[in-house]
Design brief:
Chain lengths: 273, 315
Amino acid sequence: MNKDKLMREAARYRKEILQMVYRAQKGHAPSCFSMAELLIYFFKNNIINLNKNNINSSNRDKIIISKGHAAMGLYPIYRDLGIVSDEDIKNFATENCLLRLYADPTISGIETVTGSLGNGFGIAAGIALAEKKLQRENKIYTILGDGECYEGSVWESAIFIAHHNLKNLITIVDRNNLSILGNTEEQLKLDSLEDKWKSFGFKTFSIDGHSFEDLDRVFKNIGETEKPICIILNTVKGKGVSYMENDPLWHNRIPNNSQFADAISELEVNFEK
Amino acid sequence: MQSLNWRSILKNELPRDILINEIFNAAKNDRKIIFISADLGAKALDRFRVELPEQFLFAGISEQNMIDVAAGLAMNGFKVFCYAMAPFITSRCLEQIKVAIACQNLPVSLIGVGIGLGYDNAGPTHYAPEDIALMSTMGGINIYTPGDEETIKLIVKEQIRKPVFSYIRIERKAFIDLKIEKRERDFNLIKEGEGKIVISSGYFKDKLNLILKTKENNFSLLDLWKTYPINIKTVEYLKKYNEIIVIEEHYRSGGVGSKILEAFNDTGINKKITRIGLPKKYFFENGGRDSLLSSLNLGDKDLEKVIFKEEGISS
């Protein structure tokens, strides 16, 4: 794993997400930023078996971003893979575009509609069960927000996944400690998500979600597992743009001209590093 | 008036068993058929679970996850039936039905048992007086209320042959053994006459069938088992009647009567429909379904008055 290369990719990725959001004047950049390292690690380090050649194959890996406001985070990744075009990225969230504010299955590589929190996860469980019944050997990756774990249906799905031992489903929780109205632990304690997922029957890991070393350590060591996996990524919402970090007000706020310029400068410094 | 001792002529097999047996017969030869229950049982389901365990899923009392999982399965070519009590498979998981199934055009079939006041004495938490209203807002849905064995089998066969997004409304109790005079595409004519037609389904249609036998008349009685959308051929058939009465165990607003009115309006037919249904309030009383219906002015005597126009009733 070339950590420096991946870090530069993550900075480039954040820059591109911000450009998309600024151009369209809509989007949820901070929610994408908190999972940037994860997506870069997945797709630039050959973890997920999904590419332009197998995109239409039912045997490939699948990824469901259940925190649907950040499903747009896949767009630059898919452009890099050649699944969507530069033009598509430029037209993000405009009239007649392919890459809409909230992703849907008209886009290759997007398995389901998401946006209503909690549901993408249950659908991922159904997909994982289907893949198991069809005896396919692919993996299904699903990413939830920590605020999403307030939804009761998440725990309905967790019980189901554990009972059916859906080991082909990798559940990732982006634990950035923020929801729209503020810090989760101040508003309504989620407390230890690691304990909760473990008690629901998942083999649970809790790592620094912005550390490529941690990501590599956990994903390389999953191996054969007795139970379904849950990886809690401890992250910072808005990571990479200092004025956005940990500030719930930036959930879907669009930077003004000078804020945008400042953010790009900051990201370019990281990119060049 | 002769007393309505219709309980003595109930068929034994419950509608849910007829339905599940039909699915079972197909599932034996089609491993893509999956039956998911949110903790509602049936004799026929006991057999299904034992003989086809790989094709049965226990969802638990988790209707929302049941729907999401059904969507994930349907995306991979499985023919999925979800099964629960009518109030719970509708309002409890309506959002999941909308975002996981309806807006992705997935051909999942939802089966709701205990429509209307079927779970009598259990109170408002177990009634489904608004299920047609709620479910008809889901784009692409087909709603059925089969009222006899043959119709149940027809609907299930068709659902398996060509899966569509559907909601099948099932009575809790057994049907009355009734003769159908004529079977049409989306409805059954229990009795075909002229001039006046009474439209109903489920429990009420069985009662109305007996009520219509108490006095001489040439009215038609139509069992509208394709509840929604109303087919243009049904509209064409209905418009020739002078007087149309819809009697349903559903809120007046948003039920079958409303759907027919909408269909008439959309096709430029300007005809009054008398709509009789449940009042929009919550009933906690015990005493059984008939007692409850009587207290709501929907007892047999009340329906008789409406049909034979002895006195008006307001509902």
